[in-house]
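Hi support team,

I'm filing this because I wasn't sure whether my run with iron/sulfur cluster finished correctly. The job status page said complete, but I'd like someone to confirm that the output block is well-formed before I use it downstream. Pasting the exact inputs I used:
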Amino acid sequence: MKLRLAFEKTGEMKYIGHLDLRRFFQKVFRRSGVDMRYSEGYSPHMLLSFAMPLSVGMESVGEILDLEVNSLPDEEITALLNRNSVQGIRIREAVKLPDNAKNAMSLVSAADYRIRRKSGQREPWQDLIRTFFWEAEELLVTKKTKKSETVLNMKDLVYSFCEDRGELALRISSGSEKNVKPELFLTAFFERAGISCFPAEWRILRESLLTGNREKGFVSLLSLGEPL
Amino acid sequence: MAIDHPARYLGNELNTVIKSEAENLIRFAMCFPDVYEIGMSHLGIQILYELFNRRADTWCERVYAPWPDLGEIMKERGIPLFTLESQRPVRDADFLGITLQYEMCYTNVLLVLELSQIPLFSRDRTDEDPIVIGGGPCTYNPEPLAAFFDCFYIGEGEVSYDAFLELYKTCRAAGEDRRTFLRKAAGIPGIYVPSLYEAEYAKDGRLLSFQKKYPEVPDRVERVVVTELNEVPYPTKPIVPFLQVTQDRVVLEVMRGCIRGCRFYQAGMVYRPTRERNVECLKRLSDEMLESSGHEEISLSSLSTSDYTGLEPLLNHMLDYREKGINISLPSLRIDAFSLDTMSKVQDVKKSSLTFAPEAGSQRMRDVINKNLTEEVIINGASLAFQGGWNKVKLYFMLGLPGEEEEDIRAIPALAEKIAEAYYEIPKESRNGKCQITISTSFFVPKPFTPFQWAHMLMAEEYVNRAHMVIAALKTQLNQKSIRYIWHEPKETVLEGLLARGGRPLSELILEAYRRGAVFDAWTEWFDPLKWEAAIEETGTDVESLCMRTRDEDELFPWDFLDIGVTKEFLLREWKKSREGKTTPNCREQCSGCGASKFKGGVCFEAKARI
Ligand code: SF4
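And here is everything the job wrote out:
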């Protein structure tokens, strides 16, 4: 049976790297006595996969983890897991997926972020966003990987960008196909808008991971399952 | 501020103990003076953590040496080293306990003290500073570090720490100062307070005399030992690190001590007598630990697990865990039908390799070191394994053993050759390609409290020569393509010997090396022999006398004031026997009267022949 969990990674836990987080969850499941499914072989491992790694240092309230179990525990699973977790990693919700569901990793196509200045200092965001982003013809950034450099037009890859209650809310292309880190976009945007930007001044929070596309719209990965 | 692996410093791992800061709480900062990933893998600290935190009046917290990236920042900005759990300065604790697991961590001890803003020398500390106490295997010669510690704990933590902490409470309530406390603590079995003893050294580093300064202080400090392992606390709720540490698994300590008297092996002597936990106790502990930690792997810890009398039922119990997806990491067992069968169940035979530790290549040399293992047994074990489908073998040896001749050195690759031959004797159809034999040699360091404590070391160049003899001999062999040889640079070896065997004057050397920037010496990437060479020069340390000289039989050693149970007479007997190439039976075959029976427990009281 396939399950999908949404969880938070906040506070000091933002310093825990992706592989360490995977190991942490394996241990949470084991401590909780969840009847996990395993791969075959000499060193069987639990069948679990994350939708998308979170950069070390970034907090999130909308991480997604898929797993396979043989049976459901007697106790409500989020409560059970939270009892065996630590502060900063909290399971928010669990859903059951159809057996033929694709894994979250292959589905993610966008992510929502909220961005604020740690100092609380505000800017006339609405105007800046309109002038320097929506009304601009293009906003090009260069994405460097080990092998290549690609120039991306952010106008194609940012699906929504606005001010909301004093913070910036951003929906941006993510996942295996066209992944854009929010920092990359923000740096380019701030530069264009003439705002000084030291990465350490900003707090970026990942809010949720989504699937879908611009034409048909985006939905949360959790909505593909049924409540338990 | 970008530092590597910030998770090293968070202190929020599962099963961490957090206590509220009640008044009069004894705060014990427990330090492993190396990086988190190494320190967190250490069982001894987990045991002490459990032991201390069981006490309502004590809070034991962890401290590790910050990696140089953070260490530098802390030094620059004057940030004091903190304990992980409370994130408060170490210097605010009542105690700073430092475990001394290897000599190459000695400069890190100074690093930890300096970062903690605690005076490096015991004599400069005041009542505002924590009491600095050392423990662990290197305390079997604590003298090179004596000036930096207020006291040392000699032996197993379970025995005397309660009395030690109770005494502290009483002294604190009575408003007594640290000197009074230390003076009284010296009366507790296992506690050594260096400042209460006077040692006189010759210019070449030789100990001339060692005497207590006050009548009420014991003449010799006795090592303390647990007699009944089934009854002492064990960390059944181990801390579960987020980072991948070296031992990312449940570790089950099946026994302490070793029945075999390898003459080079300090642990085999200083942890006598052999004492076992019973199978029922171990089953209960492992069940509890797996449940509380969620670890997906379990391994056994001891000096020689094959000698554990309950091995078969214990391993069978562990095999049952596999149904729950738990991996079994087997310690290196003696290779026989039973161990091969067990191994084939838990590892992929094609991928895993088998380990043999003959330690010496020739039978003559194996008799000298009392490694009771014959070539026949090794070859038979290997053949059995090859028939079972294995084709990878690792062989561990030492070079530079007392009395080693060229013949003995050439016997190392020769043994590997014979193992390769045994492999190619198997019909081609039933072999699994080529065999891969890895020879690995380390250089022998004569350690205190071993029969080889009288032996001399070799100059670094001579160690290199010997490694080259192995290479040269290997090149003449038929199956050289199936044999790989790994050896380590000997630069650390002589230094390790020096720090292991020297006395109090070495504190100057350690300080000088530290002042010149030596830290994390156990890390190849940090170890800088030039800093040490300069410090040796500067302090006039006589390496020749301390390391390159066969010690006189009646020479006074810096560590002789410790009574570890095993007597100097026994060690001397063994030293003499080794020079005659005579072996000594193990403790189960026959008691050799080493002295450890005075602890009234363990193997000494199993039924057997006595001399
Ligand atoms: S007293 Fe005898 S049995 Fe006991 S440890 Fe020593 S040699 Fe072994």
